[in-house]
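Researcher: Can you fold this with zinc ion in place?
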Amino acid sequence: MMRLSTTALFLITATHLAAEDARQLDAHEHGVGQLNIAFDDGQIAMELQAPGADIVGFEYAAQSADDRAKVDAAVAALARPLDLFVLPRAAGCSVVQAAASLNSEDLHDEHDEEDHAGHDHAHDHEEEKHAEHAEEEHDHEAHAEAAGHTEFHAEYLLACADPAQATLIEFAYFDRFAGAQELEVQIISDQGATAFEVMRTAPTLDLRDMF
Ligand SMILES: [Zn+2]
């Protein structure tokens, strides 16, 4: 019933994922993001998509210094998955890769995905891009403004010393992002795929049955 195909794509290539993002921007529901989590041996792969409305409270192209600062701060926060999706200390998880970006309807984001792969400092990197491609960014923003929807996208790879202990996720995400109301979470493990809805009002996910 959930979008299993999205997770499958995410596990295969980020490039296909970018195409998937493009299709979904129109359809997204403000307040509701998607989080896919795949457990594979000692690694946990995660992918987050959330409307701009959830993350920074607006979806127009950031023009003012304030708006730009909000976007930059959000991208930086999204690049720290363990601060947003808190796992039990006993699982011993650490971040191997984290990349976050803001996508508008007009995707040069295949490009972004590749640029950002493996960088913890997506924030700094994004700023460099802005400087280098000022003209291109201008077009990008004009288009986004006309279209009216943006999404933040992040991908993470975690390594866990004892992944079987990763049985509870606390969603500090909702504390950090005031516009976020719900995450549709899909967990992929040896047990198959399971869908959950995690709400702001009950921001924890108990995964003990998954192990
Ligand atoms: Zn929107």
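Model: Folded with zinc ion in place. The radius of gyration is 16 Å.
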